[in-house]
Specification:
mainly beta; two-stranded parallel ribbon
């Protein structure tokens, strides 16, 4: 279902029951799985969006993998070779090249460098009840599973955060 403007590159694959709203651009060799919703989004060449993803007001670079069951909300930017896995939600955040959040995470109001890993169950706690704050994570950082990153927070490059940390 297309409601808006769709620009499609060469050799693009779009699955069943896909909804496209607003301005959507798909680069060459993009693959969109079934039951996906795309709204005001650009997806770069050779990227794959797996089944049951919802992506709105976002920019996805080349060679990116998203999903299944991922949600990218307004202001999400994924650089080349980034990976967002199943049940990951991203809002108003920038993930650097080769950075990955493989499953069950919430990343909001964040700036994440290159080659970083966000462990399963990790959340950025960006709201203090009155204001939203930003989390900044450097290059080559490892965040262990089930960590709560309470903003405002800055994690330097090559840091290691143990599983279950607050």
């Amino acid at each position: 279902y297309v409601e808006g403007i769709l620009k499609v590159g060469k050799d693009v694959s779009i699955g069943n029951n896909v909804t496209i709203k607003g301005n959507v651009t798909l680069g060459n060799n993009v693959s969109i799985g079934s039951n996906v919703i795309l709204s005001n989004t650009t997806i770069g060449a050779n990227s794959t969006i797996k089944e049951f993803c919802s992506i709105e007001d976002s920019t996805i670079a080349k060679n990116v993998l998203v999903g299944p069951f991922a949600r990218l909300r307004n202001g999400s930017v994924l650089d080349n070779f980034a990976k967002i896995g199943n049940f990951v939600e991203v809002k108003k955040s920038h993930l650097g090249q080769n950075t990955k959040a493989n499953h069950h995470a919430y990343i909001g109001d964040s700036e994440i460098g290159k080659k970083s890993n966000i462990g399963a169950g990790t959340i950025t706690c960006n709201y203090d009840g009155e204001k939203k704050h930003q989390t900044k994570i450097g290059d080559s950082v490892f965040i262990g599973s089930n960590s709560s990153l309470v903003a405002p927070l800055k994690i330097g490059k090559k840091s290691y955060i143990a599983a279950g940390s607050v």
